[in-house]
Amino acid sequence: QVVVVRHHEQPAVTLRLMIGAGAASDPDGKSGVAALTGQLLDQGTTSRTATEIADTIDTIGGILSVGAGMEQSFVSVLVMTDSFEFGADLVADIARRPAFAPAEIERQRQQVLSGLQVSYDDPTYLAGVVFGRLVYGFHPYAWPQIGTPATLASLTRDDLVAFHRRYFVPNNAILAVVGDV
Predict the structure, then answer these.
(1) CA nearest to 109, candidates 75, 73, 147
(2) Which of 51, 60, 93, 117 has the maximal Cβ count within 10 Å?
């Protein structure tokens, strides 16, 4: 589904691809797979390296963001109107052909684990985790979206590819185009 909202006040366009799957769709025992998949989307595709993606978006003065929430994953780009085709191509490439390079997977996993180490010293974070378990029991909402040290350690490239293959499909996506088009 494509939704277009024309807004000609500024010569800019935002393309946001929303996928109807996030942390709530993580397989049992694999909490964090959606979050890790989302984090890796802009870390290289089969045709572009992470550096090429970052350099190109910076060169045209655009903004790229990727990620996953509880119920959705997304790829979003903001570009000037004259870079619309590039922005559309970039969103398509990132959403359809992520590389999930083993070195990038490990780098992102270590970043998340480091963040969790800090979070485990934060009483507010711990209270939120405990509250989630009390309220939601064994429902996916009960687990931290980014996973736990144990689940993150168990995630493989195959888990990420399987999540991507299952949910990053046209009948599970909405493309919103807003701006000077």
Answers:
(1) 147
(2) 93
Q: Please spell the DSSP secondary structure of 106-117, one letter per residue.
A: HHHHHHHHHHHH
Provide the angle, in degrees to the nearest 10, between the axes of the packed helices 157-167 and 33-40.
90
Residue 112, CA distances (Å) to 4, 5, 18, 117 in order: 35, 36, 23, 9
Half-sphere exposure of 119 (CA within 13 A, CB side): 16
| Chain centroid to CA 169 | 14
Radius of gyration for the chain, computed over Cα atoms and rounded to the nearest angstrom = 17
What is the arithmetic mean of pLDDT over 76-89? 97
Nearest 5°: the CA angle 64, 65, 66 is 135
From the list 84, 62, 87, the residue with the least C-alpha distance to 180 is 84
* Residue 75's pLDDT band (cuts 50, 70, 90): very high
Torsion over CA: 100, 101, 107, 109 (sign): positive
Which pLDDT belongs to residue 139? 87
Q: Cα separation of 22 and 149, whole Å?
A: 19
138 Cβ contact partners less than 8 Å away, ≥ 6 residues apart: none
How far apart CA 142 and CA 133 sit, in angstroms, is: 5
